[in-house]
Design goal:
two-stranded parallel sheet, 4% strand, 4 helices, globular
């Protein structure tokens, strides 16, 4: 909220670890939903989404901890071979959504 109210940001780029503690789908909206005004296709509970996506997250290790097709025994967080389904389902991003590029401005 600090970013939104004090800086009046045109877009937000995060540098990973968006969803603590372990990237679970149930915690994602509480961790990221405060930026709903910047997220196109937003389906969470915090408010309306944006017409144009202005939220560009980067995956961090915590975002990968809850992955599809997990092979770890319970309690271990080392297998990153699956996909971060909570992240991929929540955001509408360019390309394959895990790594992408975009141009903002002229």
């Amino acid at each position: 909220q600090l970013v939104q109210r004090r800086l009046a940001a045109h877009a937000i780029i995060t540098l990973g670890d968006n969803n603590y503690p372990k990237g679970h789908p149930k915690t994602l909206d509480n961790n990221v939903g405060i930026y709903h005004d910047y997220i196109s296709g937003y389906q969470g509970t915090k408010g309306a989404g944006a017409d144009l996506n202005r939220f560009f997250p980067v995956l961090g290790n915590h975002d990968w901890m809850h992955v599809a097709n997990r092979r770890d025994p319970p309690g271990l967080d080392r297998d990153f071979s699956g996909l971060p389904s909570a992240y991929l389902d929540y955001f509408e991003l360019p390309g394959n959504e895990r790594y992408y590029d975009f141009r903002w401005g002229p």
